């Protein structure tokens, strides 16, 4: 056998080399395109910039570049700029409670060096000429040259994540989703960064650059919202108003005025009013901040949406809410991306005391139909925003004790020698063992392991033998017993084999456990997906028709019942979905859509999908962003009419699944209605060939398990190899 050349013993604990540590930790700090852009934008804001420009190439796959007009980097800081845990924001841990900048850990640039090819062009306010710095993956300067630049800093990332091959491949494969998430994160900084002009543009693979979003540097959050989402969104917004709790609320919770904290926090922001049609179909325009820092306060998000649903339960509101609290009460050092935030003094906020409510009242002297107020009894429970750590339960397979007892050999049992049952802890004064003590020992020997009394603990038993108040203490003598690991292993293996055989039999004969019951539809569908492949439908044998509504089929030993109307309806529905091109009706005057820059780009990239849905557009490439697309034709079909709301829904669906053919929900409803009317009805007698045709069709569609209205298409009835106990 060849000897190992390593002098270290196998499994020895050693320190990981610094380069590997750097790569491992960097991959935990920067997780996505959104994180990378966020870190660079935050650096610009922290540097006092009033202009930040984000440029992407091929949605960030090839290049991410962020420029600002901040203070720039001093020459003395060039070497430390990208070193791990080097920062100018704090000196020791105590500074953390007073930190007011976005960054403070000194991790971002160092991590980006490890994950990409990073270069920096910077010019400090005290210099006349800028400097270009090129860094290696360890964060060391490898090239330094003069470079013309105005005051500020430009950071360029080429080939993000290419040093992590698996992540890089996933990053490229999911780049559209990564890009959409990045835009949403960037929108939050655009909203909250008043006085800072932020722009973002993307250059596609053909070399054409288009602006994605842009703000004007206004000092108003409302203006920033309008710059990103357009004037239509502004028309629906109402400001949050913080009001003191009413006497009724104070009385309801048994509080006193003196118990209420004074000015513990303040809130500012906007929410869309509750009229139907004003809200959104998803939570894609909800932005929350604590001390101007974008974050994900789950409980605040939940309560705002729940209250909004009291007035418009079919939609979600636009929300931009900033909660300001004293900086020493905030802990932002919770997660690498700093989006999870906790507060100190959590015990101040009792769950039964806090309440957020939206009072839906009519505003005086205004045409608005509603006003939303945020009323707080004592405070929003910011400290409890994050869900608690989930309980981890580990099921560890083991051989049952009773099974071991059933298979154990009597030759290995402890002999029932009275001497072996006698110990120094006795009941009677003469040293003999009382009958009660013997009985207790005998019963104790049959306790499960986890329930046995502690036989080694010190205890005493009174001289009276009529009552036993405590477990009897025994100290048994040790005797050698015959034991064979091989034999024990064999017994355990036989038990496992019996279990496996039983499981195989169960799998063979009981693959379909769900009953024909509305409460088990989901389970039944999952079983069918698992056990039935599409090519099996054409192999099914037609047994006959039941009750002029159900086709009975046989596949090997399994009998199935198929709903003839539901299955034909699903086939017709999917055919309509795939092949129907809706006809459009021309508008007299082209209609402005008031799309955001992001939505506009999604529409342009997926314009063929919109055309298949009956929408036609006039595209003016040279027009201003958010005004390049106008609607010129709408789909119509008898009594069905469609509009801009359906376009917005399609845009949202395509932002998550770019390039995938999809339909607005109202088009799906129309197709469902059509497919229902043209399908075989219950009560129609079918020939064997007609039934076979319906069954074969099930193998030709994507989702054959339920009709468009949710009714199941087929269920398992029985297996002929066994008699079902159900």
Automatic annotation (TrEMBL):
Biased composition annotated in UniProt, kind: Basic and acidic residues: 436-445
Gene Ontology cellular-component terms listed: MutLalpha complex
Region annotation (Disordered) ranges: 399-458
Key words, A-Z: ATP-binding, DNA damage, Endonuclease, Hydrolase, Nuclease, Nucleotide-binding, Nucleus
Alphabetical GO biological process terms: mismatch repair
Record domain MutL C-terminal dimerisation: where: 542-686
GO molecular function: ATP binding; ATP hydrolysis activity; ATP-dependent DNA damage sensor activity; endonuclease activity; mismatched DNA binding
InterPro entries tied to this protein: DNA_mismatch_repair_CS, DNA_mismatch_S5_2-like, HATPase_C_sf, MutL/Mlh/PMS, MutL/Mlh/Pms-like, MutL_C, MutL_C_dimsub, MutL_C_regsub
Protein family according to the UniProt entry: Belongs to the DNA mismatch repair MutL/HexB family.
Identification of the protein by name: Mismatch repair endonuclease PMS2
């Amino acid at each position: 056998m060849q000897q190992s050349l390593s002098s270290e013993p196998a499994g020895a604990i050693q320190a990981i080399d610094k380069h590997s540590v750097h790569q491992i930790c960097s991959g935990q700090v920067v997780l996505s395109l959104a994180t990378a852009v966020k870190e660079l934008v935050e650096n610009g804001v922290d540097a006092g910039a009033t202009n930040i420009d984000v440029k992407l190439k091929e949605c960030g796959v090839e290049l991410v570049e962020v420029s600002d007009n901040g203070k720039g980097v001093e020459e003395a800081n060039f070497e430390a700029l990208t070193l791990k845990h080097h920062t100018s924001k704090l000196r020791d841990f105590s500074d953390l409670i007073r930190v007011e900048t976005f960054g403070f850990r000194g991790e971002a640039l160092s991590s980006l060096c490890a994950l990409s090819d990073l270069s920096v062009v910077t010019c400090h306010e005290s210099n006349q000429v800028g400097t270009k710095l090129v860094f290696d993956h360890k964060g060391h300067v490898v090239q330094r040259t003069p470079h013309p630049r105005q005051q500020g800093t430009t950071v360029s990332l080429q080939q993000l994540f290419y040093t992590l091959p698996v992540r890089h491949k996933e990053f490229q494969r999911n780049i559209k989703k990564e890009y959409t998430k990045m835009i949403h994160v960037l929108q939050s900084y655009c909203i909250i960064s008043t006085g800072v002009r932020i722009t973002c543009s993307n250059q596609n693979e053909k070399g054409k650059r288009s602006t994605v979003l842009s703000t004007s540097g206004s000092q108003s959050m409302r203006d920033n919202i309008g710059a990103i989402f357009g004037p239509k969104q502004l028309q629906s917004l109402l400001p949050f108003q913080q009001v003191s709790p009413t006497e009724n609320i104070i009385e309801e919770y048994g509080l006193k005025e003196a118990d209420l904290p004074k000015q513990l926090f303040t809130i500012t922001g906007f929410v869309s009013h509750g009229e139907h049609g004003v809200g959104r179909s998803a939570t894609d325009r909800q932005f929350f901040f604590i001390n101007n820092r974008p974050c994900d306060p789950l409980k605040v998000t939940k309560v705002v949406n729940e209250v909004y649903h009291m007035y418009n339960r079919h939609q979600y509101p636009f929300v931009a809410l900033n909660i300001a609290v004293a900086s020493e009460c905030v802990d932002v050092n919770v997660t690498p991306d700093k989006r999870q935030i906790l507060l100190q003094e959590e015990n101040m906020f009792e769950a039964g005391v806090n309440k957020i409510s939206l009072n839906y009242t009519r505003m005086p002297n205004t045409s608005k139909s509603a006003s939303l107020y945020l009323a707080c009894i004592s405070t929003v429970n910011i400290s409890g925003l994050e869900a608690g750590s989930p309980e981890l339960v580990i099921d560890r397979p083991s051989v049952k004790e009773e099974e071991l007892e059933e298979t154990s050999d009597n030759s290995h049992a402890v002999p029932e020698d009275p001497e072996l049952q006698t110990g120094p802890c006795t009941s009677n004064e003469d040293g003999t063992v009382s009958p009660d003590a013997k009985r207790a020992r005998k019963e104790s020997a049959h306790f499960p392991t986890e329930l046995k009394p502690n036989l080694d603990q010190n205890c005493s038993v009174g001289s009276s033998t009529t009552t036993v108040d405590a477990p009897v203490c025994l100290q048994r003598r040790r005797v050698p017993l015959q034991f064979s690991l091989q034999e024990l292993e064999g017994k355990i293996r036989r038990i496992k084999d019996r279990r496996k055989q039983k499981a195989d039999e169960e799998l063979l004969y009981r693959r379909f456990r769900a009953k024909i019951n509305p409460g088990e539809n989901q389970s039944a569908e999952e079983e069918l997906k698992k056990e039935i492949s599409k090519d099996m439908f054409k192999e099914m044998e037609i047994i006959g028709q039941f009750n002029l509504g159900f086709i009975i089929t046989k596949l090997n030993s399994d009998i199935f019942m198929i709903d003839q109307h539901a299955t034909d309806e699903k086939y017709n529905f999917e055919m309509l979905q795939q092949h129907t091109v809706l006809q459009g009706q021309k508008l007299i005057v082209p209609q402005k859509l008031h799309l955001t820059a992001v939505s506009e780009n999604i529409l342009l990239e997926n314009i063929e999908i919109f055309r298949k849905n009956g929408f036609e557009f006039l595209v003016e490439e040279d027009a201003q962003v958010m005004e390049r697309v106008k609607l010129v034709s709408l789909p119509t079909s008898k009594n069905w009419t469609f509009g801009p709301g359906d376009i917005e829904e399609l845009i949202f669906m395509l932002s998550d699944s770019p390039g995938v053919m999809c339909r607005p929900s109202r088009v799906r409803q129309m197709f469902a209605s059509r497919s229902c009317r043209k399908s075989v009805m219950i009560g129609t007698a079918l020939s064997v060939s007609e039934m076979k045709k319906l069954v074969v069709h099930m193998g030709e569609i994507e989702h054959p398990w339920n009709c468009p209205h949710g009714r199941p298409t087929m269920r398992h009835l029985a297996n002929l190899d066994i008699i079902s106990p159900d």
